Structures
1.
Amino acid sequence: MKHQIRCAHCGCLFSPNPRVKNQRYCGNKVCQSARKRLWQREKLASDPDYKQNRRDCQKAWCGRNPHYWKDYRLSHPEYTRRNRELQNVRDKGRNPRRIDLAKMDASPQKVCLIPVA
């Protein structure tokens, strides 16, 4: 009987590959994605060069695809509607007295100044 261990993500038993030292995840695609996400999170937290490189690559991609998000929102109206609703909830959670963030100069109360003689 082969040695089996539990996957760190899904908890299923699997036979580790003898060529992979300290294997903790099974070969399931979801589990491998979880392993990669964990590695990336740890790498971003511990390696400033890796973090800067990721930032530079994302910035370069955005420069090559300047209309991506505008086109995405136009072609996905349900995403746009849901995001707008969630943004309203987030905005109200920031400051409950402030209703409209776009009108920064608007005052909720009228202020009357009476000159002192």
2.
Amino acid sequence: MHVLSSISSRRRRSRGQSLVEFAIVLPIITLVVLGLFDLGRAVFTYNTLSQAARQANRTAIVDQNTDRVKAMAIAAAPTIGLKSSNVTVCFKTEDSAQSNCASPTTDNCPSATRVIGCLAIVTASMTYTPMTPVISIFWPSIPLTSTSVGHIDYVCPVGTQTTCP
């Protein structure tokens, strides 16, 4: 009888130990899983942002109208809420050392003298906000930026004709 009672008391204690271990490990596992979801969302957002910049640049190399280029970037990224203010479009001379629109006056390729071979540069940017509380404490917002550069293949007509084919 004594042997049976000691075995059953050990089982009760081990059941309690398992519950305590589970209670300690569960928050850690939950944070890891939510962190992986956040990482997946961030990668998706960056890939969508990059695709929007590339698609807008494809438009910019044949149609240099910045409003249409920005509209193409927004249309290519409907799921992330890209806005016109988050897209910059500029044109640089072919031998420019710049690969972004940070300084629009340097190596500028104005529309009056724009020729085939100038660079069309489209930059799309936005701020990613993590949904996991612990991650958002350390990184409340993460800036994401993607730039696409391409050579102008066609210069839109100016004057009486206002559209590009």
